[in-house]
Amino acid sequence: MSGSQTDTESAGTWVGLHHTASQTGTHHDFLLSIIIGLGIFLLVVGAVLTWAVSGRVPGIDLHMIGIIMMVGGVLAVLVGFLVPNGDAYSATRTSTVGPATGGSDEKVDVAAH
What does the pLDDT look like over 11-46, one tens digit per residue? Predict the structure, then answer.
């Protein structure tokens, strides 16, 4: 790659022989998405058990189980929205390759937001 070429990759940006990559807390965001999805699932199943199921199971109160599931779903959705997102920090890695020697130099900056 010559010094005048520019190429963009998913992991970062190449500008000449200089590479910069930024990464935020994507794993954290993924877990929060799962928690919110679980909360919505619990809300839906709880609502079905509370209002749509008319059958009886001896010794089990489906209405109460539905209410408990809906409360758990609301709590899960609230936790998913109230927990700080994964953008609380950012990391930037800069790699530079020397044109004469071919040696590389890396620098990592971590900043809190």
Answer: 455 445 554 544 455 677 788 889 999 999 999 999
Residues near 41 by beta carbon (within 8 Å), at least 6 away in sequence: 73
**Domain presence at residue 8:** no
Task: Report helix, strand and coil shares of the chain as percent, to nearest 5.
Answer: 45, 30, 25
Mean pLDDT of the chain: 75
Residue type, 42: L
In a domain, 4, yes or no: no
Domains of the chain: total: 1
